[in-house]
Amino acid sequence: SMDALAAGLTLPLLTVPVALAVSVIGAVTFLLAWLGFYAGRRLHKLPGHWLGAIGGLCLLGLGVDLLVRG
């Protein structure tokens, strides 16, 4: 994926120890996956069209943020 390519190209340019970078990336990935799992268990009662609308609004917000910040 593009984010893995970007991380692979830029990580060697940083002055951060590899073990620290790998630990932080792993911890953040685990936390976000766990939060997604937890949210899925809590939100499964909502009708699918509501969840689709919420997801669409999140993507729309990210797109607007990307346009505004550049």
Which of globular, elongated, flat, extended, rod-shaped describes the shape? flat
Oligomer: single chain
Helix content: over 70%
Query: What share of residues are in beta strands?
Result: under 5%
- Would you report the number of β strands? 0
Q: Biggest sheet: strands, sense, closure? A: none
Using only C-alpha atoms, the radius of gyration works out to 17 Å
**Helix and strand pattern:** HHH
SSE class? mainly alpha
In DSSP terms (H or I, runs of 4 or more residues), the helix count works out at 3
> What is the arithmetic mean of pLDDT?
87
Spatial separation of the terminal alpha carbons? 21 Å
Unreliably modeled segments: none
Describe the structure in your own words:
The longest helix is centred in the middle third of the chain and has 26 residues, at 18-43. The protein has 70 residues and is mostly helical. The protein has three helices and no strands. The protein starts with a helix and ends with a helix. 81% of the residues lie in helices and 0% in strands.
Condensed summary:
This protein has 70 residues and is an all-alpha fold. The protein is 81% helix and 0% strand.
Write the layout of secondary structure elements.
Blueprint (H helix, E strand, L loop, with lengths): L1 H9 L7 H26 L4 H22 L1
Task: Write a concise keyword list for the protein shown above.
mainly alpha, 3 helices, 70 residues, flat
